[in-house]
Amino acid sequence: ARSTVACGTQTVGYFLGGRTTTAAVTTVDKYTYSGSSVAGGTALNAVRQYVNGATGNSTKGVIAGGDNATVEIKTSTEYTYSGDTTAAGTDLNAVRGELAATGNSTVGIFGAGYLAAITAITEKYTFSGSTVGSGTSLGTARRVLTACSSTANAL
What is the pTM of this model? Predict the structure, then answer.
């Protein structure tokens, strides 16, 4: 068992990184919805834990922020579904852990979290071009939250 985050397509869900009872891990599990089967995916390029959300579109998933088992981070990893490859993504502007993510087919939104204080900031991760920009702050600062989006957003 591990603390982890997930993203995916309409046919496969991906569980990314997290923490077991003893250590942070780079493990990826692919869950195929039809048939309810699980297979290993390509390991993440870096240990990442205490991230409460990942986001993605039909091509790739993005996990950002959290911590690397030592300190909070702002780096991101992109997981390309076809070919099961990982690559460094664009850093978030703000270092923080315990954040959440949601999105649609063009952008992912990473929001809230904690570093020295609980925050309400959001950042937009544009999938094409892998760019990061500031978003609109949430109405309430908080950490250890979750987020979702509608099927109208292709997620």
Answer: 0.89
